[in-house]
């Protein structure tokens, strides 16, 4: 009877979507504005590109630092503080008069967005279980994957209306919408009697406990490797496909948008199938599909050396990879959150923040390998996916061993 009375309110799916899914717009919407920002601040390409890195780093740090705090302080106040901070920092970006101010605001903006996303995922774990939780993660993933498709288009439409600052005024409006949705549709999902009190030592201890928990950390570690492979594609495909395959910007945009659309379609399909089939089976299928696409691309690139492969032989394996990833991400998130639900905030921080941080650090890998070619990109992707397959196989063998 006591547990029933302590049952928290259920957040609306719209509030969860806005809190967790729209933060990715902060990294995608203003990409087209980078040249205009460079001219406005009279600075270098490297300096304005650093504003993107600052936001990505903030997104990872916001998840890792604030997610565990919500296990002891509750969810609602932290989400509201995060969305308000996101709004204020977006305004500061719009008003920035120097690159230094912009960099500081972007770090804080990213941290706020990451904190909101991590705590929002924890709210799902607080209020939903099993396949219902997995279905919700599928919905949130589908929305977040739309950002790479619609974000640059929104930015391109806004730029002629008032320059690059208009993009950040738009993000400020998104922040207001996030805050209103959280205030109206996101009740406190972690009542005081279910919180984990303690200071910094206890917070770190709970995160360390999850890291030592093989059932939790294995899917997170494998996802880190998968994300590294995917971000190798994200970081290298623009230059590789336009230079090595001589694609026009319009053709490249079509390839990238098509592949992003396969991810969205796959995550929607996951949402439909997970209630009947469960996340474990769908994750196995998705893992196999994406690995097959990457290994096929690697084999094709090596077979065609020294020349580049035909576009279709690059496009199809990449689309297979992104299709598998669209199902793998929500399935793996659901499983990791289930295994770490005793500390849902810390679990959300680790399962979301660590792969994101690993991927962000891997983004420039293709350039570091030397020549910007399909072979270099495929080799980087293939290496990470091979490591992911080996790690998953080792974990499966360890799980079958008898205790003792």
Describe the structure.
By secondary structure, the protein is an all-alpha fold. It has two domains: 10-194, Growth Hormone, Chain: A (Up-down Bundle); 198-399, MFS general substrate transporter like domains (Growth Hormone, Chain: A). Helix content is 83%, strand content 0%. The protein is globular and about 65 Å long. The protein starts with a helix and ends with a helix.
What average pLDDT do the residues reach? Answer: 85
Which architecture of the largest domain does the CATH hierarchy give at level 2?
A: Up-down Bundle
Q: What's the Cα radius of gyration?
A: 21 Å
- Ends apart, CA distance between termini: 39 Å
Look at the helices and sheets and give the structural class. Answer: mainly alpha
Shape: globular
List keywords for this structure.
single chain; 404 residues; Growth Hormone, Chain: A; 2 domains; 18 helices
Quick description:
The chain has 404 residues and is mainly alpha-helical.
Compile the SSE list and pairings.
Blueprint: H1 2-5, H2 13-21, H3 25-28, H4 34-41, H5 45-73, H6 76-95, H7 99-127, H8 130-144, H9 147-162, H10 164-185, H11 200-212, H12 214-244, H13 249-277, H14 279-304, H15 311-339, H16 344-362, H17 365-368, H18 374-400
Helix pairs in contact: 2-7, 2-8, 2-10, 4-5, 5-7, 5-11, 5-16, 6-7, 6-10, 7-16, 8-13, 8-15, 9-10, 12-15, 12-16, 12-18, 13-14, 13-15, 14-15, 14-18, 15-16
